[in-house]
Automatic annotation (TrEMBL), chains A, B:
Limits of the GST N-terminal domain: 1-82
Class of the enzyme per the UniProt entry, highest EC level: oxidoreductase
EC number(s) stated in the UniProt entry for this protein: 1.8.4.-
UniProt gene name: yfcG_1
Protein name: Disulfide-bond oxidoreductase YfcG
Organism per entry: Actibacterium lipolyticum
Length: 212, 212
């Protein structure tokens, strides 16, 4: 049965789930959520996910939200990208939490505020604050990748597909690949995996749609 | 062997791990990290955790950081508080991620900024922004607890012990139990579990130490 992923192109959190489905070669299809016209706040969507968030994955009678949980589910279901031992699996989970806590929250919010929020609602103080926290996270990631190709063990895992979630987007948010050579090379390695696509090619909806 | 938890009283993330160890009746002891005098940034501590964060758990040759991973480890090790089926375990993980992403990041940062950062470094804009996001998270939690005693299934799980992490602290950060009756009653239920203690009783270090 085809797995459905409720998502939209701009969502880096949805991209983590979409990329995991794609690289694990699962039979899946995206279902467009018209976030920018308020669809995530509709009763129909909130029935699917009371948290009102994208992504949501539906696999038969299993409905899941939270990108990290979807990644873990797909990895368990396919036996791919989950680490090769109990220690590696814990390490993968550690990076998923770190990403959710320290990395994507800052990257996602900063990018949203700088690119998708009306200008009169943007706060320079908040953007500076979030970018400072984002730089601290990027520094941790850059140091971690100094002497290894992948975050956990010697093969790609869902930890990589989580931490990279926002880093392929073209919109400015305080991250420039040139400033982080180890991250830059790691993003190239992920992009070389069979089936990889950038966010706006993997999921429906992009800023281009709204500018026409 | 006694499990060591590197922590300090003010850290709500450490409290989640400490509370899980305590309620699971594990043989554990806290090791004080003098965060406010920069101990988390020392080479010795960063060897323990390159991310420079508390909590860190050491159980023999297993060293783990990230509260969610420690909670998951303790729950797996003891068979307690992890949910009673695969579906419940996924639901538990979903709340752990949600807490890390939507709840604790806002609560922890707001509380730190309002109480522990020098006044000249506080930004009213940032505090207002974070409190707005925190209110959205509290609203989700309040609605979720409208018709149930525990977040997952009919028994306490580490999902409860994660989401409550910052909510027992006395310092102001934009959460008043009176405004959220369902959360208030749920916090009382958790506090009634055998062995429960509030953060400053469970872990060493508190603002009182620094005010003398």
């Amino acid at each position: 049965m085809t797995i459905k992923l409720y998502c939209f192109g701009e969502s880096g959190n949805a991209y983590k789930a979409a990329l995991t489905l794609q690289l694990a070669e699962v039979d899946w299809e995206p279902v467009f959520v018209d976030f920018f016209n308020g669809e995530a706040r509709t009763p129909a969507f909130q029935e699917l996910n009371p948290m009102g968030e994208v992504p949501v994955m539906v696999d038969g009678d299993v409905t899941l939200s939270q990108s990290g949980v979807i990644q873990d589910y797909i990895s368990s279901k396919t036996g791919k990208f989950g680490g090769r031992s109990a220690a590696e699996r814990r390490e993968v989970l550690r990076w998923l939490f770190w990403d959710n806590h320290k990395m994507s929250s800052q990257a996602g919010t900063t990018r949203f505020m700088m690119n998708f929020l009306p200008e009169d609602k943007r706060s320079a103080d908040v953007i500076a604050f979030l970018q400072g926290r984002l730089r601290a996270a990027l520094k941790v990631l850059e140091a971690e990748l100094a002497d290894k190709d992948w975050l956990v063990g010697d093969a790609p895992t869902i930890a990589d597909f989580a931490c990279c979630g926002y880093l392929y987007y073209p919109e400015p948010f305080g991250f420039d690949r040139k400033d982080y050579p180890n991250i830059d090379a790691w993003l190239d390695r992920i992009a070389a995996l069979p089936g990889w696509k950038p966010p706006y090619d993997l999921m429906p909806g992009s800023p281009a749609d709204r500018n026409t």
